[in-house]
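re: ur question from yesterday

yeah so i grabbed the chain u mentioned. its 188 aa long if i counted rite. heres the sequnce exactly as i have it in my notes:
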Amino acid sequence: MKKVILISLSVLITFVCYAQSEEAVDTREQKILRKAARKQAKKLEEEEALILTKHLIDTRRFVLIADYVGNKRGDRIPVNSTINFLKIDTSYCVIQVGAMNGIGYNGVGGITAEGTVSSMETIPNKKGNSFSIRIVANTNIGNYDIVIFANAFGNADATITGITYGALKYYGRLVPVELSGTYQGHSF
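ran it thru and got these structure tokens back, copy pasting raw so excuse formatting
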């Protein structure tokens, strides 16, 4: 009787051990498959974002909504994105800087420059997943050179320089003009 119990117990333990090792193999394979699926989904998401960003730039209808504004030395200040933006709408451009505390020349605590785009040049990088955009804008308060670096996901940095010393930098993202949700103040 003891032999029967020992044999049946050893067979039972063998089956349990075999089932656990088979389950571990399945889990590893499932983990590899899940990782490959996530990688593929991320690649598809990047491709879709690249197509949208390229379309915005090619049609010249985008707004760079600034989450941060910086200066030439690299200091960054978080700002309200509804009143700090750079808008390009075909040949029309708006550069606006504002602050929530105070009333500026434009009514939103800053300055709004409206004008036209006299030239715009887009240069994709070697891989084609980011862009460098150079814009010359003639506004009601001066002429500005604008250089924008945008990646596939629409994250962008812009440097705005005029004829005076210094530079204004925007750090944000590119969005379609229709979906920007920005508030434009008064211009001169």
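noticed a couple things. The longest strand covers residues 111-124. also The longest helix spans residues 2-59.
anyway ttyl
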